[in-house]
Design goal:
The chain is an alpha/beta fold. It is 48% helix and 17% strand. Helix 5 runs antiparallel to helix 6, helix 7 runs antiparallel to helix 15 and helix 14 packs antiparallel against helix 15. The radius of gyration is 30 Å and the shape is flat.
Length: 482
């Protein structure tokens, strides 16, 4: 009748585990540079058979040496061959475990950077014993082999994808261990309390808990505050990583499209003296002093009987409600009107910078008059989008508005991952439960349950409390060859 269901499940689980283990010990290879024509391309090989596989496709200049003869962290001139065919003239790096990125033997073939030649060399490597690496598998092996934790591994991909200087610095700081170090410190403090509680429960005759609830309450307050500070940094972290969603609003012919062209550094939008030229949204990513803006130019907001223009106005209002930042373009050459009054309603409760445009013309609307109509705290910057004036002041106000004028990456830890934020929120929730138990006078073993939960939640950030499925999902988002 066959094996019982429970036995079959155990066998299947064992087979799956064996398959995963075998896969993790296979020698892998991939193109590590961009798949485009360039001066140099790199094919990376990693695993216990990396050097033998490399030897099968490498020929030294005089044909007398093989890669296994060379010392670790050395580079050598030679040729890559596929059977009798010479594919390319190369430099080959040999790096032996454990002092490598993956903690495995690694061979890197530095060849000419043509797409065809890189693919031919990779095919030769795969033909001689390696398999094609999955996305992110080199970094995954670095994590599984204990070289980096999960937070540092994620920082690798963030560093590659960084779109501005602030994001690059934040990612590099995390790669150097800023987040990991902070999380490990919090976990160690929780572990100290857990150890005391367990010891006191096991040996109440010699370890007194008198006064301990008050002591623990103070420590939990500190931990809650530390988690809260990291969680609060996540909004700025998101803006650093993804860019600030920025919508330009204003009435027709206020200069919105001219501003988009100025920020983009090219003629992105059509500019005319005819009001209502822009009828649909235009999007452009720009970088100002290391800050990324995802800028959307919208149709001028006004009452109109034109069906197409009215649709553009409705879209402008929708985007304005969802934006991180509104740039309100006011035309200094004409007075405020009903359209401006409607826009002033839109910017209520939003982060906004008012740009008083056309300072190159005789002003009708003054800065003081505009400030009287704006919500309190909205800065006003006088500019001329046409003459490229006032942009430096705008960039300064932008930086002050979002980042208090500066970000210190040597001292401040910034959370840029939503996964990390959620884990911190879970840890804080558990610590708040500890606080409730303390206030209710519950026994010590109640404290340890929620303290352990907080400890586990923080462990998810650095990869000490995560399942295989989550690990696979994270690394599947990496680029090939990293």
């Amino acid at each position: 009748g066959g094996y019982p269901e429970e036995i079959r499940e155990q066998v299947n689980a064992a087979d799956a585990a064996m398959e995963i283990k075998m896969k993790q010990t296979e020698t892998i290879a991939a193109i590590a540079t961009a798949l485009s024509d360039s001066g140099i391309g790199i094919i990376r090989i990693s695993g216990s058979e990396a050097i033998p596989v490399g030897d099968r496709v490498y020929r030294s200049k005089n044909g007398c040496h093989s890669l296994k003869d060379y010392g670790s962290h050395t580079i050598h001139y030679g040729f890559i061959v596929d059977g009798d065919e010479v594919l390319d003239e190369v430099m080959v790096s040999v790096m032996k475990a454990p002092k490598t990125y993956t903690r495995e033997d690694t061979v890197e073939i530095n060849c000419h950077g043509g797409i065809l030649i890189m693919r031919r060399i990779l095919e030769a490597v795969l033909k001689n014993g390696a398999r094609l690496a999955e996305p992110g598998e080199f970094t995954k092996r670095a994590f599984l082999n204990g070289r980096i934790d999960l937070a540092k591994a994620e920082a690798v991909m963030d560093l590659i994808r960084s779109r501005n200087d602030y994001a690059r610095k934040a990612s590099f700081s995390q790669l150097e261990g800023s987040v990991s170090g902070c999380i490990r410190t919090l976990r160690q403090e929780i572990l100290t309390e857990l150890a005391f509680i367990e010891s006191a429960l096991d040996d109440p005759e010699h370890i007194s808990t008198e006064g301990y609830p008050e002591q623990l309450s103070g420590k939990v307050d500190q931990l809650i505050e530390a988690c809260g500070k990291l969680i609060a940094s996540a909004e700025n972290g998101r803006l650093l990583k993804e860019g600030i969603s920025t919508v330009i609003v204003g009435k027709p012919n206020a200069g919105k499209s001219s501003l988009l062209n100025l920020l983009a550094g090219r003629e992105r939008a059509i500019v005319t003296d005819i009001a209502g030229t822009t009828r649909d949204v235009l999007e452009e990513s720009v970088s100002l002093h290391g800050i990324s803006l995802n800028v959307i130019d919208t149709a001028g907001i006004r009452s109109t009987s034109d069906v197409v223009e009215r649709m553009g106005v409705e879209r402008a209002e929708k985007y304005a409600k969802e934006a991180d930042l509104l740039l309100y373009m006011a035309d200094s050459s004409i007075p405020l009107d009903e359209s401006d009054a409607h826009i002033l309603q839109l910017i209520q409760g939003k982060k906004c910078i008012a740009l008083l445009n056309k300072l190159d013309l005789d002003p009708v609307l003054t800065e003081e008059e505009l400030k009287e109509k704006l919500p309190e705290g909205v800065p006003v910057v006088r500019i001329s989008a046409k003459e490229n004036q006032g942009l430096d002041e705008f960039e300064k106000v932008l930086t002050d508005l979002f980042f208090s004028g500066k970000i210190s990456f040597n001292e401040e830890v910034v959370i840029t991952s939503m996964r990390h934020k959620e884990a911190l929120e879970s840890a804080r929730d558990s610590l708040l439960e500890v606080k409730k138990s303390l206030e209710a006078g519950m026994p010590e073993d109640f404290f340890s349950i929620d303290l352990m939960s907080a400890y586990s939640s923080l462990g998810e950030i650095i990869g000490e409390e995560v399942g295989e499925d989550l690990v696979n999902e994270i690394f599947s988002k990496f680029c090939m060859g990293k």
